[in-house]
Predict the 3D structure of the following.
Amino acid sequence: MAKQKLSIKAKAAKAKRDLKAAKTKDRKAKKAENQRKRRAAKKKGKNVKGKDFDHKDRKFKSVKKNRGNDGKGTKREGKKKYRTSKS
């Protein structure tokens, strides 16, 4: 994926938005769960290189499939809340 061509002002605003989004309670829970799942999978000898944990399907899949919503695009997912281990 090509890097976004943003002005300095827009780049700073995006960085601020992205950081705010990454610090939300929901995002932190997903990240922590993903780290736990990756560590456990590696311990079991599973190869998770190049894969992401899909919080909807509850399994590891390729980055391309996971982030592209299995070929359906991300617009269809909307702002759906996916369950994490703690929720």
In short: The mean pLDDT is 85. The first helix runs from residue 8 to 22.
